[in-house]
Design goal:
It is a single chain. The strands form 2 sheets. Strands 1, 2, 3, 4, 8, 9, 10, 11 and 12 form a 9-stranded mixed β-sheet that branches. It is built from 6 helices and 12 strands. With 312 residues, it is an alpha/beta fold. The longest helix has 14 residues. The chain is globular and about 55 Å long.
Amino acid sequence: MKTRKNWAARLPAVLPKLLAAAAAAAIAPSAMALKVDMYAIGDFVPSASGGCGGGDRPSWPGMAKAWYDWMGLMGHTKTGNFTDGSTTLRRFCDPSYDANCADSAYVDWPDAAIIALHGFTSDGGWGGTMRQPWSAATGGNGECSLNMGGNSPNMFVGDNNLRFLHASSCLSLNDSYFSKMRQSMMKTPGSGRALHVFTGFHGLMWISSSYNGDYAETAIDGHSMSVAKAWVTNHYKNNKFECAWYDPLGIFGTCSDQCPTAMTIGPTAASALNRLNNERYNSGWGDPTGRNYYAWMGYLGCDPVGAGPFAP
């Protein structure tokens, strides 16, 4: 079989018996509880009032909290609900970017986390809007956004504790990000410390309390199927958004989709794909030992607002 640096899990996924058997033989499941955090902004602060801008989305924290609460109900330890408040870059950036960064006390401290905030494409990767500029009082220079996986990222996670990171954010894992996202998932190649699974959205994602159940189901299903598959299957919406006025049900194909995506890394193509298809919250897998290869999961042809059809 020829090796490729981008291995895909195209849904619906059917796992080969050989691959499943190899995973079961190589890695024993663990019931170890995870530490779980949530970071969400619903009340954004206008630039004119000293904030970082962005329209308010009052339903957003509830979506993240549905995942957070159900992770608690599934036996994990809820260690931090950081909603609104002084959400600045300091909580997400790595000391390799600035010595005053404190990700090891925030997003990179728990084992699993979810981030809910406005997103955009920034320098070839995911940009996320903060609530407040990072002030000089805590070592910042007024920065208002995180950057993960771009050409000059300030966010590297997994070198402390974080294994699973969910980004409830527009444009957080576009099909064009995969290759560069690897550097933010493993800061130091060969260190043996890395993010296991990163999930987000290709194009725009949608916000409503009616989607709380999708986040709850991700937490529940991620204990009986891979975390990647739990995210992608629960958040996929077909032909539902921004329909033409004459086509509210999408009968004529004028509506757009919501396109969840997931990715993993590994020292080999087989290891990245195995993790993508098999690692659950309760698996107890060790860290990836390299980032030479990545694997992705998503719906080919999924056509969202804000990006072209998903086609890695």
